[in-house]
């Protein structure tokens, strides 16, 4: 059995009256690709933000790679947020310069080869980019970091088919080179389920079901059909 | 999933069953059928994962199993190759045939066919499948 990368115990996180995470408990294995599945509002982004140390639980405990999330753990985590923020006037190249100065473990050479793999023009202004181009640039910046944990919040949503395929290829390539724990949240299960080693189905801030994907396939079928049964 | 051709092998994966077993069985049958020759190089873990759009961990697990069965061998810095030992392949081929026959008999018995019925049916078919 593999080591545990993320251990969340009885987490509660409230926003006003709503419990975004509600007695949420999960242990996720290290060096696996984990799909975090569920509809909008299930609590996926809250969970990711908590792993990244951006928000704290109201109750319960979380540890990530054996430590409490915070600024110290962030050098080990590459986090792809669900929305992009760029600097005024930046080009793709300037965004890489910024990342190189600011992000621990950022490998410039890897970033540049990813840029060309992703079909991005280094001189392109970041503000004129389509959502697909933006998603590819954000993912490049995340994946160019040599870190043990990669958090990708909704990397496939609202982007064109070709960008999505490119992103999936880059993720597979990245996994072949690195022993990394990768968490991917998505509701586009059909396109992405073959990427996962482990899945977590979330709803209303709780875990409905989780486990090894190959075992779930043997017992219950595809992740897509399990999803349909669980959320009917 | 659609049929994928890579390195002389054909794959067709069904997401409702364990992928690791499917990758393993499909490579084994490609070897048994001679679609990949003895000593031939097979795709790297990365290449096969890319072609099938699956996690490299799944491909790696299948490759480890093939290596355990001595159907493949990994040469440092060169990649993974089908064994050059014809006997190993013959053994695997016979095992696959035995499994297929065993399954066939179990199926026939479960619907009440005796050995005589089965023999008669095979003769009628004249050895032609389907």
Automatic annotation (TrEMBL), chain A:
It holds the Pfam family ABC_tran. GO terms for molecular function: ATP binding. This is ABC transporter ATP-binding protein. Keywords: ATP-binding, Nucleotide-binding. Residues 6-229 form the ABC transporter domain. CDD domains: ABC_DR_subfamily_A.
From TrEMBL, chain B:
It holds the Pfam family GntR. Keywords: DNA-binding, Transcription, Transcription regulation. Gene3D superfamilies: Winged helix-like DNA-binding domain superfamily/Winged helix DNA-binding domain. Residues 17-85 form the HTH gntR-type domain. InterPro entries: Tscrpt_reg_HTH_GntR (IPR000524), WH-like_DNA-bd_sf (IPR036388), WH_DNA-bd_sf (IPR036390). The keyword Isomerase does not apply. PROSITE patterns: HTH_GNTR (PS50949). The keyword Aminoacyl-tRNA synthetase does not apply. This is GntR family transcriptional regulator. It comes from Paenibacillus profundus. The lineage of its organism: Bacteria, Bacillati, Bacillota, Bacilli, Bacillales.
